[in-house]
Amino acid sequence: MTLALAAQTAELLDLARNRAPDARERLLESIIGLCNAASEVIDTDSVQGLLGSIFMQLVAEAESDIRARLSEKLSGATWAPPALINVLALDDIAVAAPIIANSPVLQDHDLIKVLVEATLDHQIAVARRGQITSTVVEAILARDEPAVLTALAANDSAAVSDEGMARLVESSRRHAALRSPLARHPRLSSDLALRLYLWVGQSLRTSLSERFRLEPGVIDAALAEAVREAHAQPGAGQMLTSMAWQDQIENERRLVGKLHDAGQLRPGFLLRMLRERKLNIFVLSLATLGGFQPDHIRRAIDSDRPELLALACVAVGIDKGAFPDILEQVRGLNGGRPAGGLDGTRRAVGAFGPFDKDIAGMAFRQAVAIV
């Protein structure tokens, strides 16, 4: 036993003198092995302080991939020095992820520090951590970051109170990504399910109805109550429009996406949609064909610069001869916008000069960004 210990000590000393990266990693692994074997006797302040100093110096000299492997090995260690664990938790996310997910050393105040000081990826990792307490949950809810709230909604083991669930459901009104995990959450109550029902898509409505046995009469009453509440609040028109047209808008998006994937979304389809008085499908189709944001197309058709719409049309290959009809149809469906009168129309037709599609698309993006 004495000879074995002497040999092990000699090996550690040799590794400590060797500055090569692979020697640093082997030294770290050897120390971790010793600590794991003696975990019951090293949990004292003096030993912890010494271990912390050793590990901190070695970690400071280690490459990122070595720190990542060290993080994996220490993620379940109860004896790991808290200072080291906190440093690793704030490291690059590739290093920090195992520590944030599993380390028993991290306390609530450590996790809240990560929420406040680290990146969005770190915050999401905290929200996904198993068995996070109500203190950490409250800190996540208070920050109101959509991606982090979505991760929390998908974490069934988190200590989310009834009030916290209500706040998540209310947030799902604004952030659609929350709706699916909330619909499956085991802590979702019947009352909250009914509230969630008001702004989810058809597939989730079916799921909620089956899970909570929502009666049609109860649903109708809830919808009517939501309409009455919406009328009594500022911005009622916008809220009602969102509730009434949500399914239709989602179906329109799917239609445009399927046509595009099948290679059937062509310039002629845009004029056809205008003639069928489907302005929103026209907007989605033009945006998809040109690689634009739908909001930018809407901004263009709501402006007093019809040349912006013309640039977008040039970018997707619409012929100059077809544009006057498109402009007239858009104005007829959009309250006379884009405005600008005859002078605006002349400017718009002028945008069909000898421009390449890519140049027209670039010009549209630059011009619409400042409208």
If you had to describe this structure to a student in words, what would you say it looks like?
There is one protein chain. Helix 2 (21-37) packs parallel to helix 4 (64-74), helix 6 runs parallel beside helix 8 and helix 18 crosses helix 19. This protein is mainly alpha-helical and 371 residues long. The longest helix is centred in the C-terminal third of the chain and has 26 residues, at 236-261. It has helices at 2-17, 21-37, 45-61, 64-74, 82-89, 93-102, 108-117, 120-128, 134-143, 146-153, 162-171, 179-184, 190-197, 202-212, 216-232, 236-261, 267-275, 279-290, 294-301, 306-315, 323-333, 341-350, 357-368. It has 23 helices and no strands.
Summarize the structure.
With 371 residues, the protein is mostly helical.
Number of strands: 0
Query: What gross morphology would you assign?
Result: elongated
**How large is the count of helical segments?**
23
The separation of the N and C termini measures 80 Å
Question: What integer is the average pLDDT?
Answer: 81
SSE pattern, N- to C-terminal: HHHHHHHHHHHHHHHHHHHHHHH
- Enumerate the spans where pLDDT stays under 50 for 5 or more consecutive residues: 1-9, 236-245
Structural class based on helices, strands and sheet pairing: mainly alpha
Largest sheet: none
Please bin the fraction of helical residues: over 70%
* Radius of gyration, in angstroms, nearest whole number: 30 Å
Report the β-strand fraction as a percent range. under 5%
